Amino acid sequence: MTGQNQNAELDKANRQAQPEGEQTMEQTSAASGVEHSATDSLFGPAKNAEQYMQLLIRNAVKMGVSDIHLKEDAVPYFRISGAIKPIDSLPPLGDTAMAELVQTLSDEEQRSHFGELNQIDLAQSFGEFGRVRVNMFRQRGKISMVLRLIPSQMPDPKAMAMPDALTRFSQLKRGMVLVTGPTGSGKSTTLAALIDMINRSFAKHIVTIEDPIEFVFTDKRSIVNQREVGIDTPSFSDAMRAALRQDPDVILIGELRDVITINTAVKASDTGHLVLSTLHASGAMETLTRLLSNFPPEEQQNVRIALAQNLKGVISQRLVPRADGKGRAMVYEVMTVTKTIQDMIEDPSRQGEIIQAITNGAQHGMISFDDCLLKLVKEEIITEEVALANATNVTDLRLKLEGY
Predict the structure, then answer these.
(1) CATH level 2 (architecture), domain 3-150
(2) Quick check: helix, strand or coil at residue 111?
(3) Bridge-partner residues for 252, per DSSP?
(4) Helix, strand, coil content of the chain in percent (nearest 5)
(5) CA of 272: how far to CAs of 112, 138, 160, 269, in Å?
(6) Which CATH superfamily is domain 165-367 in?
(7) Assuming Cys at both sites, which of 36, 40, 308, 376 could form a disulfide with 382, CB separation 3.0 to 4.6 Å?
């Protein structure tokens, strides 16, 4: 989409998404009786920071934006289908405007932390348009922020073509399930879908520990308590230790960040709880490597044994361009920890065999990245070029594509 078309789409979305009786960006500017320019208005067509954010979020939701980038002396940027696009129909934001946005999006305590640390994570609700995860930071002494849009509706696994393994993992009574992938690959969305499945299907106590809280759950068959690091608890590790005294059935940890959290998570899964979490890793093999790398060499064999006994599954995911140009499709690898894979986790010399075990493990609900790519090509969701560009083994995938 060109920059000109992008801004036309912004204007169109603003008109279509406008609630009755509320002004559009253009109407707001006209109604003020002042011809705004980039130099005589802090927020262009909006009267103040709060209205600016409402208009920005409304348009972003309508246009399928995943992230909004704001920085001093620049126009807003939207990330759509993985690509960042400038919104030239809006004026650049000055230092005063960015300071007012900080004031609008954060409370006094958060602003104090931002002043001390020059960076902070928080979340804000925008009603029917959902929640926004905000990271504020300084670069070259100036304020910048990135806003990740979180849908107001719970994710639908079928509509989003998530792996069928989610249903199987939601039925587990104990153990650990990890969702891995790079930043922006939808890990939080997949975990939210998994929690929602449990919430709708079983009478359990679910405790989530997040930084910040993203999807907000309402009690259905389960009771859900959500704790935010920095507001409800000092840290992931403190919240994890406390969670074990809160009669949980399911514990969701936003991310396995340190040794204490990993150890407590493994202990929780070993004592009869289902633990769900995320990790920045590209696949099941790297997930194991990343977990083990947190521990000194003399402890790693014991960690391997604990993981072999308690890890039940790993879903690794990526997002790739769709063939129709309408956003991105999820590509995933699913590893179910069978007795064979348990042995491979315990034995360092056999860890390299895990990829082949996943490829051969369809009867256990497993699928490799390359087989998932092949499936999406057959369904005409992605092109062969995209599949090959994202393949783990390009030669093997090319042969499979030629064969079908």
Answers:
(1) 2-Layer Sandwich (3.30)
(2) helix
(3) 208, 276
(4) 45, 25, 35
(5) 40, 44, 31, 6
(6) P-loop containing nucleotide triphosphate hydrolases (3.40.50.300)
(7) 376
